[in-house]
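Chapter review: from sequence to fold.
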Amino acid sequence: MNVLKIGKKSSSTKPSIFLDCGIHAREWISTAFCQWFVKEALSTYGSDSEMTSLLNQMDVYVLPVFNIDGYDFTHKSNRMWRKTRSRMSSTSCIGADPNRNWNAGWCTAGASSNPCSDTFCGSSPESEIEVKNVADFIRRNKSSIKAYLTIHSYSQLLLFPYSYTFQLAEHHSELMTVAEGASEALRSLHGTQYTSGPGAATIYPAAGGSDDWAYDLGVKYSYTFELRDTGRYGFLLPESQIKPTCEETMLAVKYITSHVQKNLY
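The token string follows.
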């Protein structure tokens, strides 16, 4: 798994943001966004004041494709595949849901213990090598990581903890204010409407998610994007929507990173 570190070189450790895409294999617009982010970071540094300021002050870790084997499988065999491609000796069913495999209320609400289910939580927390690798990386760099952004599709939502409980996060009001500001920034470009809120109440209860895990670890600004659309095309978003989706999402991401920059903790 390759993670890119983007930022102005520094002799000391800078605060950082972790961005991942493609945790669910079939969510192709997600992986497209990480590529778009890297392109924008490299091509607008020096000319765009927000991006320049961000990369001068912070580093951004970008994991362009989280669920590599699953993503590869959607290109070669089954376009609608969601899970990893791991094998367990006890079943012929393949894979676990990498966004139900984190140690955050693991395998309780909205996750299945059935290996054949699309929301199978895995045999244990971090049983999936992809999840273990990312969790290890974030734990190693915990002191510098100030925000965790994970990109999914679809539903046009900007979610934050919690998903494994209806209890409100300690920083609920700030997280909500930032999410609403980011959604407004996104809407300003093409009029795309997003709904903001904690995962459990806004979409559905789901245990073992990466944003809840990162937040509980101490990463305060932890957000999950559900990109376009609201169901007309679903996971099969047409190519013509890649650019506008990435452009508007960029505005929301920059809104969040700008807030993080000004509110380092």
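Two observations follow directly from the output. The CA atoms of residues 29 and 240 lie 11 Å apart. The chain is about 35% helix and 15% strand.
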